């Protein structure tokens, strides 16, 4: 199956380079691109991308607003934020609104391609190198007490899965660690997200961190 990508980046050279990298993969197609997020809803409706890869800072509508507009819609595509910095207040805000993760602009080509595949499968893309730093500095507005209260609704097995999500593990890695099938892990994650009111696994990771699980 081909992963369809909508690319939003205001710098032409950067946008062109990212497009070339993505389209070097046989299973990824950049179906549309733009220099700003102002038309993101229109472009999403027209091209039905699986993933929207968007710069954080753009002239009119930035990556945070792009994320908010898309995740508020039913059957929203996964949103991945492009940023120049390891820890960026704009990224924090985007994750609060339900972004599936973020990538640094100097991410190696193979990692960029893999990231698009990962988020298209419904997983989060938080680079292992910066996951702990990101979560440690993330200000969700939720207290540890509130996070613990939410996590208390989970079964022991769901808490195990949530803890591993908080550590940045993929479904496959969680399955191997807990000796479960990937399909069972996916079922647990669906239950966890429903109980926690999380839009995606990134928000589960944040709650797991705030609640002391990760």
From TrEMBL:
Gene3D superfamilies in the cross-refs: 3.40.50.2300
InterPro entries: CheY-like_superfamily, NreC/VraR/RcsB-like_REC, Sig_transdc_resp-reg_C-effctor, Sig_transdc_resp-reg_receiver, Tscrpt_reg_LuxR_C, WalR-like
Source organism, top-level taxon: Bacteria
Annotated Response regulatory domain residues: 4-120
PTM-bearing positions, type 4-aspartylphosphate: 55
Keyword terms of this UniProt record: DNA-binding, Phosphoprotein, Transcription, Transcription regulation
Protein name from the UniProt record: DNA-binding response regulator, NarL/FixJ family, contains REC and HTH domains
């Amino acid at each position: 199956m081909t992963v369809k990508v909508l690319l939003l980046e205001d710098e032409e050279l950067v946008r062109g380079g990212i497009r070339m990298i993505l389209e070097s993969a046989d299973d990824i197609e950049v179906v549309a691109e733009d220099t700003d997020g102002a038309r993101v809803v229109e472009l999403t409706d027209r091209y039905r991308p699986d993933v929207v890869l968007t710069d954080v800072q753009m002239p009119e509508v930035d990556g945070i607003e792009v994320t908010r507009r898309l995740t508020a819609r039913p059957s929203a595509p996964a949103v991945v934020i492009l940023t120049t910095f390891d820890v960026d207040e704009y990224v924090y805000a985007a994750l609060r609104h339900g972004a599936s993760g973020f990538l640094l602009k100097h991410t190696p080509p193979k990692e960029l391609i893999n990231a698009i595949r990962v988020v298209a499968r419904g997983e989060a893309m938080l680079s292992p190198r910066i996951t702990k730093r990101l979560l440690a500095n993330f200000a969700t507005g939720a207290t540890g007490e509130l996070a613990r209260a939410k996590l208390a609704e989970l079964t022991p097995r769901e808490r195990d899965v949530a803890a591993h999500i908080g550590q940045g593990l993929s479904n496959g890695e969680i399955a191997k660690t807990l000796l479960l099938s990937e399909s069972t892990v996916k079922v647990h994650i669906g239950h966890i997200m429903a109980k926690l009111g999380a839009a995606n696994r990134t928000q589960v990771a944040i709650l797991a961190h705030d609640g002391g699980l990760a």
